[in-house]
Design goal:
- With 162 residues, the chain is α+β, with helices and mostly antiparallel strands.
- The chain has helices at residues 15-24, 38-41, 49-54, 68-82, 90-101, 106-111, 113-124, 148-159, and strands at 2-4, 7-9, 31-32, 56-59, 66-67, 128-135, 143-147.
- It starts with a strand and ends with a helix.
């Protein structure tokens, strides 16, 4: 925090994104390709409204590298620097990521499937943690706290007919 006239000011929120781009442009930086397929993203539409509403994002320590996934984490760090990540719904975050990286068309933003799939990939690679509440099997009164990637793996298993 910087101090100006006995006031505490937050760090500029663009610093996280600026730092990412500075590191990405350095020679020898490893750029990881990432594929976010529309087919895999369709499963995210099977998440219930309760699961979407209870989802929360926790950022992990920064890691080196560049690419789509690393830039997405840098953008989440901007939200955290602004102090709004804890108050934003994960669906809003997914919509923002979907608009930035894929398309801002209103029909695509209704479900923001690719944005949710991007969050799943970040969760799967332990760049962030996305936790949500899902109903316990056999009862509607008990809920389990699970990671987003684990829940989507379960939904894909049931969708495949097994």
């Amino acid at each position: 925090m910087t101090h100006v006239d006995d006031r505490r000011l937050l760090a500029p929120p663009s610093a996280a994104l600026y730092d990412y781009h500075e590191r990405a442009l350095q020679p020898g930086t490893r750029h990881e390709p990432a594929t976010i397929s529309s087919e895999a993203a369709k499963t995210t539409r099977l998440l219930s409204t309760i699961e979407r509403a209870t989802a929360r994002i926790t950022l992990r320590p920064p890691v080196e590298g560049a690419g789509l996934l690393r830039e997405a984490v840098a953008r989440l760090r901007v939200y955290e620097a602004r102090g709004v990540l804890d108050r934003m719904s994960v669906h809003t975050v997914a919509r923002n990521l979907h608009a930035v990286f894929f398309t801002g068309h209103p029909f695509g933003l209704i479900h923001a499937a690719r944005g949710w799939h991007l969050l799943e990939e970040l969760d799967r690679r332990d760049l962030i943690e996305v936790w949500l509440d899902t109903p316990c099997s056999g009862t509607t009164r008990k809920w389990l706290r699970v990671r987003l990637c684990d829940r989507l793996d379960e939904l894909r298993f049931w969708e495949s007919g097994n």
